[in-house]
Amino acid sequence: METGAALLLLVALLGKSSAVSFYGDSISFSPLQMNTDGRYKVTFFHRENGRNDCQNQASLLCEGGVCMDLDESDTLQTDQDSSGQGRWCQTEKRTTATFQANGTSFTLSWDEVDKAMIRKSQSSPGNSMYGIVLDAGSSHTSMYIYKWPAGKQNGTGIVTQHSECKVQGGGISSYAGKHGGAAKSLEECMKHALKEIPTSRQHQTPLCLGATAGMRLLNIVNQTESERVLQEVEKKLRSYPFLFKGASILSGQAEGAYGWVTVNYLLENFVKYGFVGHWLNPGRSTIGALDLGGASTQITFQTSKKLENQDNLMKLTLYGQTYTLYTQSFLCYGQDQIIRKLLAHLIKTQGVKSQVFNPCAPQKFTISTKLGEDVFDSPCTEKYRPDNLDPQMTITVVGTGNYQQCVNNIKEIFNFTYCSYSMCSFDGVFQPRVTGSFMAFSAYYFTQKYIKEITNITLTSPSRAVEAAKLICNMTMAKIMEKTKAEEKYIKNVCTMSNFVQVLLTNGYHFDEASFPSISFQEKAGGASVGWALGYMLNVSNDVPAEGLSMMKALPSGSWAGIIFLFIVFVFFALVYGVVINRNRTTRSDII
Fold first, then answer.
1. How confident is the model at residue 65 (pLDDT cuts 50, 70, 90)?
2. Number of domains into which the chain is organized
3. Which of 2, 87, 306, 495 lies deepest, with the highest CB count within 10 Å?
């Protein structure tokens, strides 16, 4: 289903042959349950002309605030476990009414040819605040525009993803030594932001850039160049009429924590939009976040255990609640860097030769590789670097497609033996036992996606992960290409990544047959991209002052507690009074 631009178009819905009238004031809704792909069903009740009942239903299939026709196949195949309801049969006849979907305002009206129409409402700039986050990753930069009501819930904005823009070219770290390149790469997406955000709101719109592991690595190799690139993009971003909040390199721990916030926000574990249009605290348990980027990987989850290493401790306050998190980021264990490290390890063990055999590459698959540019020009491979290396030398990597040799070589990249704490993940890093459910996103999602396409195996347990990796590693590239529509550049490393993900999750984080099924691999949730950017904007929105309340809010929990207490007291005295009156009446009747 198309999203984004479709929000701006007039979409025809519910082409019914019988005339239908909608009744009542505007209603707000959100799904009671949502499919893992972010889709859900909304059912509106209406009554046909001349009838007084409210039994007729019109169903819409919605995703990210965009609603389309729902036919029987949709109902059976994608929405059998999702439903949301709104009744529109209460007062006088209306020809137009407004409702909300995921925080976005829409208008549903009845036209002259008996078709319901849905379109995005022209909302007043005074009712919304905006924020822009540039996620400057190791391989590319993405810009996200977020929106939230000017009134806030317990100090934090109720944020939804408004739009997204992919910056062309590599990450900003790839412009090291290329003056002006990083700044220029952002121009097209910033033009998009100027069009999307009302002029009257632009000066109040926070704009920030967060760089992750790619820039962390550049900062290790060349701090001067890292600072120059940041200063360059900062100067460019300050030239726009937004409220610039800074360009900085996020710590790995912060990246992990903000990813955790995003996951739990999108799953409505902090706050949700209730049936009657109130923001409510659902009282749900949070779930952990597993992020796998290009240069680093993060694990974050809520814990009540005492953390033996305070570097892993992070406390966050959102919507009036404080959460204690364990978070850890592993630099050099992202997808791109693990592929480099594997090649560096193979070259070190086999020696610098014209051919290097890679058991994690498809059988007989060959690729030319520059020792410097493709392997050793990274601090992640420094310890494998041979003496007297010629960085311009090109070698041929030949795939042998051997599962056992592949997984053994990948395990040798980790250090599973050293640990100075009661328990560790790997490389001597403390980690308490994983508990609860987890969402795995970014490269985790794409790895399992390719595994499913190629083997038809879903990653639900360590044994299934091993089974899938064995099948993939024994295939030729031609056989793999028959199974998937993905381009060769995305699947040439699928054997490497299927084994790496398996080793990282089981040997590293200690997910076992009992806990592994609690991992959900997802790219999006609730129509929004999963990553650290939304969590970061939620944190930034704490600093944005609230305006006149533009949404109905639930009473704070303290107020509810007071009201409930008074209600109980009232009921108690009413019962006592009733008993006393009844006894008096009984006494009088006995006397008579």
1. very low
2. 3
3. 495
